[in-house]
Amino acid sequence: MEQSSPTDIRPIESNPSQGNWFALLSVTLSAFALVTGEFLAVGVLNEIARDFQVSVGTAGLTVSLTAIVGMFAAVLIPISAKTLDRRTLLLLLTLLMILANFITAFASNFVLLLFGRIILGIAIGGFWATAVALSGRLAPPHLPIAKATAWVAFGVTLASVLGVPMGTWLAQYNGWRTSFTVISLMGILLFIFQYLYLPQLKPSSSLRWKELPILVQHPAARKGLIIFIFMGFAHFAVYSYFSAFFKHQIDFSDGLISRLLLVYGIAGIFGNIFAGYLGQINIRYTFAVSGFAFFLAFLSLPMFGAHIMTAIVLTALWGFAYGIIPTAVNIWMFTHAPEAVEKGMPMVTLTFLILIALGSMFGGIIVDHFDGTILFFAMLPLVLCSLVLIFTLARGLNNPQLSCENE
Fold first, then answer.
1. What is the pTM of this model?
2. C-alpha 292 chain-centroid distance
3. How far is CA 370 from CA 40, 313, 363, 376, 377, in A?
4. Where do the structural domains in the chain lie, given as residue ranges?
5. Contact assessment for residue 171 and residue 179, using Cβ atoms and an 8 Å cutoff
6. Using one digit for the tens of pLDDT, what is the confidence trace for 35-49?
7. pLDDT less than 70: residues of the chain
8. Residue 383: CB partners within 8 Å, gap ≥ 6?
9. Class of domain 17-391
10. What is the per-residue DSSP string for 110-171?
């Protein structure tokens, strides 16, 4: 597939009459709730393992199983939905999120807990395959597509900043089940908000199986996915055992770990903002900044993380590195393969979820058989590979000189 000319690069299915700030905000907040529910398990992994008397690696299934199911949902839901109005689809997925977190909160055994996480995986996979590709249609008129995408990704960052740390903090005093109950109640409010403000979002055409790999077939988009795969696998393998590392290898208290998660999330906000602005100038260099930050954090934390101030600084660097990624990946696709974004977005979502699933599973094996320190060092070669690819495989893939706005 040939690379598009600059004049072709614009948001897919742009319709300014549909976009408004409340619609975009409703999706941003839904992203916040979904990601909080997904990664809250990381913050309370030790408590889940203790309550159900399973190993930390086994408790990690609450992360990996959700991602595995999300992988299939990201592909099957857009194909099955066909001509279903995307507003209706987003509302149904929000209902699934509410149900999933209630089941998780009141699970009487580990199997039932995993069932709740499976339902959450369906909601997450379907949401990400749908919402990000629609960001241009949900945004107010003349908002640059990079900023519209950054708004949706901001919900992910906000979940890291407020959702996961606050959920972990709440779990310290009221138990981890209370945290999931609160997310369910939040989901009910978000459902009402979406119902009131989401416009009708008719798909221009239904997605077919043969169109799923459309981004993989696009040379520039494929290079971006390859770079992301190396960087993303390394991150998710380590992040899934964030609490376990600081608890068992560094011997930090639960309260201090909660504060570190907050630091991670706040730094992620700056990473998200950074990606939204630099990504409009040079998306390749944006990825490079993330890679260098990952490498420094992963190399230094096992060696110097026992010192509280050093742990705070390096955790902030890690959070900044990952805060860049969701926005950078989406901007890369909108920049280099705009005509394929809506039909290709399920593949991006699928890639994210595969990396979460495989990364957390691999991390669980390393943690159970070795320890968290070895896990950090084992991921360094992957981060290094991503940096090499940025300056070799993706050399010359700089942003076209254009403005990507809804017209």
1. 0.76
2. 20
3. 24, 26, 10, 11, 12
4. 17-391
5. yes
6. 889 888 888 888 899
7. 1-19, 133, 145-146, 157, 160-161, 204-207, 342, 399-407
8. 230, 231, 234, 291, 294, 295, 298
9. mainly alpha
10. HHHHHHHHHHHHHHHHHHHHHHGGGHHHHSPTT-BHHHHHHHHHHHHHHIIIIIHHHHHHHH
